[in-house]
From TrEMBL:
Signal peptide residues on this chain, from the entry's feature table: 1-24
Keyword list, A-Z: Signal
Keyword presence, Signal: yes
Top-level taxonomy: Bacteria, Pseudomonadati, Pseudomonadota, Gammaproteobacteria, Pseudomonadales
Domain PepSY: residue ranges: 10-91
Protein name: PepSY domain-containing protein
A Pfam family annotated for this UniProt entry: PepSY_2
InterPro entries, sorted: PepSY (IPR025711)
């Protein structure tokens, strides 16, 4: 019985650590914040492209991250490099 409990605990720990790695935020830049695009101007440029932004934040891994919708209504979560404004990781719902 003890071996089954230990096996279950190890399996759960492994599954949790693997799923945590899959959800990890990307590292976007190591550049100093003085070289980053202005947050308000960047957000405005995204809105001008048709994004409806629910939340805009700066991640611990130096990305601009948005949650919202594309102009076609698809929900998105996108990480951007704040220096050049290019997407680093995109998650788009179908």
């Amino acid at each position: 019985m003890k071996a089954k409990t230990i096996t279950k605990a190890l399996t759960l720990a492994l599954a949790t650590s693997v799923s945590g790695m899959a959800l990890a935020e990307p590292e976007c830049t190591n550049a100093p914040k003085s070289s980053w695009k202005d947050q308000d101007m960047f957000r405005q440029s995204l809105e001008e492209q048709g994004y409806k932004i629910k939340r805009f934040e700066v991640t611990d891994t130096n990305c601009y991250e948005i949650y919202g919708w594309q102009k076609d209504g698809k929900r998105v979560e996108i990480y951007y490099n704040p220096v050049n404004g290019k997407p680093v990781k995109e998650e788009i719902d179908d």
